[in-house]
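Q: I'm teaching a short session on how sequence maps to structure, and I want students to see two examples side by side rather than one. Could you give me a first protein with its sequence written out and its structure tokens following it? Keep the formatting plain so it prints cleanly on a handout.
A: Of course. Example one:
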Amino acid sequence: MSQSTMQPPFIGKPTVTKSTAALCAAVLIFSGSLLAQDDNLAAERGKIANQRIAIDAERQAEIEEKRRQAEAQRLQQQQAAAAGPAESSAAAPGSPVAAPQPARTAAPPDRANMQRILQLLRELGELKDAGYVTDEEFELLKEDIINSR
């Protein structure tokens, strides 16, 4: 055989068959869908991160509100204790004295608050199912949400 007749198969006229073109199109479409999935995954992670931030901010606001309420209650008790002896000495002898009110226990959550708690728990479950929250984090956050009322 002479060198002029031995040509590598890729030299010469390129042949593109329908199956080759279809295969190339399928590869391009598949790679495009993978890129779209990566974009969707990144968007989902961003959404979950934002939800986490919102939950943390809400929890901090609730903690701050509880602290304010406890401080207000403590001040009321101090004022009542300071005013208590003066009021009892001013009362007429034999007049009925009002019994001190027992400290209020936490009232059961109202319907809207209960729905908010349930929604937070659902979202937390979704975060756990998606793998963004570990079992330990899930239990801690669930307890915080339930106790926040």
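Q: Perfect. Now a second example for contrast.
A: Example two:
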Amino acid sequence: MTSSTGGCVADAFEPNDRPGAAANFTNFTFDQSSGSFGGWFMASQLTSCPTEVALSSSSSSSGALSSTSSSGNSGIPGCVADPSPPDAGPAPSALPPPQNGDDWFKLAFPCCGGAANYSVSITFDPDVGNLDLYVHDQETGALLGSSTSSDATESVSGQTAAPGILILVRNVSGTVVPYSLGGNANATTRAVNDACRNAAPLPDAITPLNDDQHTTLNGAANDHEFSEPTCLGSRMPGSDTFFSLALEPQQTLTVTLDSTDNLALYLLSSCTDNCCWAGADETTSGVETLTYTNATGVRQDLILVVDSAEPPDVTYPYPVFSLSSTIE
């Protein structure tokens, strides 16, 4: 884009004056050969133009996802309702109101969806003007960190389980400020089905699940936690991973989980309905067996969760497990 506003020439990343129009870093490269990702990003010859008109953010362009409420299915026999929906993550946090001269950027973590270490910085001439730096969770909009000094460099670093970050460069001086933006991110590969929306098809006894992408809670976030013990004796505040399955009327599901860690199994109605149909949490380590028969008279599409009783910062090294199932 080569247009100018009030004598300020827009840079190549414009228009990126609101979260929904955040410029994407396409040169952020990853090396996954070792089961992890790492990469850098850099953009120079950027310009913060205070005369750019900030468009009002709306729910469709805010860059944050809203959690949905749960119906609970409390009237269905055999389904124990819990008021909190799974996979909602933190409560959505409102992004800052738009201001003239805002520049937004986004950075996705393609291989792992989160559990990433990141570092972001901007450099500029403080004699020309002043810029502040903010980093937000791409999924919820929550503020992850900020740097608001009057120095020539503003930097934010941290760790997030989000699938990416939103970066806001805010002009607080009202002058045209050239700047550079750069940083890096890295993480250990986590299970691809850590989030409920990425639930993997449940394996059967003939093809037991034994690949590292599904049998580890490495780097997995605590996406689902009961607000109170329901079909289990614990709220299950630890890391979790998700599987999908379908049961016709009168079919019986049997799932066997084997682990040296304190893991549990339970069945939910869906990713947005936190109603538990069955659970298994009999031991602190070893084999857990879940058995459930569909007696509803209709087909059920369900979510099986493998969950840890220990919070993620306690469960280290991350739990591993084997899983097999039959439907008869």
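Q: What should students look for in example two?
A: Point them to this: Residues 1-5, 30-35, 55-76, 84-92 have pLDDT under 50 and may be disordered. Also worth mentioning: The chain is about 0% helix and 40% strand.
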